[in-house]
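Re-run with default settings, no changes from the original entry. Doing this only to confirm the output is reproducible before filing.
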Amino acid sequence: MGRIQLESVSKNYGNTHAIEDVDLDIADGEFLVLLGPSGCGKSTLLRLVAGLIQPCEGRILLDGNDITTTPPRDRNLAMVFQSYALYPHLSVAKNIGFPLRSRKFSRTVIADSVSAVVATLDLSELLGRRPAELSGGQRQRVALARAMVRDPGAFLMDEPLSNLDAKLRSATRTELIELHQRIGTTFLYVTHDQVEAMTMATRIALMDNGCIEQVGTPAELYDTPRSTFVAGFLGAPPMNLFDATVAEAGVEPAGTTRSSGGELHAVAPGVNIPLGIETDSRTEHSVVVGIRPEKMQIVDTHAHVDAVVTTVENLGSEELVHIRVGSNTLCIRAPRPSDARPGAPISVRVDPADVHLFDRDSGRRLTWRPEKVSANSDVPLFVA
């Protein structure tokens, strides 16, 4: 069993709030990734769970038992560090068996446990070597084996792939996914790499400034981000974000073309995108519009965005077309060849279902109020 619960957990260093009132429930057998930029608090949160540091407030539970003040060695959790932390003077076999020797297990139990873990991670041929004789990927597998030999309730991993080159990182990601599927143990994994998070996690907890911005499946965070921070962090390239006004037909913000038909439009200089929402309200709303680069379609007619191409990046099977729209620079991910040329005009169409709206002040996602609102009503048409 390996359910981990954090209840109103906070950690301060003087006047600095490293972790602020975090609630998180990690199910038994889940692969949850703590994702976020450097300094957001994700490694601090992992160390709180491990017991390496103590929270200022809140509780940490493992399978319903309060372990907030329990020493690290008694928490039934296994930590895998970024630096591997292998003992250089010990062989691979002795490194793997060290956690059991320190707990005074018999030689027979240690040998049997090491053999089982070694077979799982394909390390049999490396047992007599020392860490200096291993590649980065092999050292990482030894560190995993040392954690696995304890049969812990959960694995805590602090950016374990960051020291590997790109090719080996990709291969090791696959190994970790397959390992999690085989053993079914809880994984709590820290990374700043969104590719690792999107490909490995069953759920992602995206952090910023010591707080959790959003928790959900990779698809939920990518398709329905709850804030401009989430929208701008996930995706390569990230979601296009720009200021606009949501206005009913007949309202003409400066620099835009007149819309028609009683439908709400997102309008800005060079932009006029219908939102597929009918209303009789004449209220305008200042918003931030978000559109994923792959959802912007280059067209010849019926365009919603009129722009000029600035640069084109060739990625092999596709191109990133950077465009200037008014004072904004946006990005289109298009199949190659797109025929876009720097300096040339370009027309873009966007499906209303692919437009995300965020509050300009708070950055929170906006939701349309489905109930009918009269033209003279002061009730907002969108809520965060």
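The first strand starts at residue 4 and ends at 13. Confidence is low (pLDDT under 50) at residues 250-261, 372-380.
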